[in-house]
């Protein structure tokens, strides 16, 4: 864990409203108009052991760390209602992205979670990260998201902002 959020900071994030609706859209496919959507899948190995190791790391925020983000979380293990501030960049140039876990997938052959954006996040929307052990023993990792710019800086970034998001998604896929 990079740094654990203080109990007061975690409570402020828990009390904040999510910046989008409907919650759960990455699972249901229900997404309000005006949001860009995407889903990417990558095979990350094979076998039950690979699945279990990848799931353990995913549910401990390791994917985010390996992708170059700093993680301040209320819990060292992902759980529904857990909150985190993900930071990309250094010093004054770092971008803070507060999130709340809105859904956890905990099935024998499927593990993962989704988080939603909180005030202060440059985007508004939801992102899910799900590992699945397939019938052929391959382990697939799928990232599904919908978002739109939430801050003036994200809106001003335009297509560059989408490229940054795409780059981070690629880092996530490689880091698992």
Q: Can you give a write-up of this model?
A:
The protein is of the alpha+beta class and about 180 residues long. It has one domain: Alpha-D-Glucose-1,6-Bisphosphate, Chain A, domain 4 (2-Layer Sandwich), CATH 3.30.530. The protein is built from 6 helices and 8 strands. The protein has an 8-stranded mixed sheet with strand order 1-3-4-5-6-7-8-2. The model has no long low-confidence stretch (mean pLDDT about 90).
Q: How would you summarize this macromolecular structure in one to three sentences?
A:
By secondary structure, the chain is of the alpha+beta class. Helices cover 30% and strands 38% of the residues.
List the defining traits of the structure above:
176 residues; alpha+beta; Alpha-D-Glucose-1,6-Bisphosphate, Chain A, domain 4; eight-stranded mixed sheet; 6 helices; globular
Task: Point out poorly predicted stretches.
Answer: none
Largest sheet: number of strands, sense, barrel closure: 8 strands, mixed
* H and E order: EHHEHHEEEEEEHH
Based on CA atoms alone, the radius of gyration comes out at 16 Å
Question: What is the number of independent domains?
Answer: 1
Amino- and carboxy-terminal Cα gap: 17 Å
- Count of individual beta strands: 8
Query: Strand percentage, roughly?
Result: 35-45%
The CATH topology label is: Alpha-D-Glucose-1,6-Bisphosphate, Chain A, domain 4
- Tertiary shape: globular
Major sheet: order of its strands? Answer: 1-3-4-5-6-7-8-2
Structural class: alpha+beta
Would you tell me the overall average pLDDT?
Answer: 92
Number of helices: 6
Instruction: Please tell me the CATH architecture by its name.
Output: 2-Layer Sandwich
Fraction of residues in helices? 25-40%
Name the CATH homologous superfamily.
START domain
What top-tier CATH class fits best?
Alpha Beta
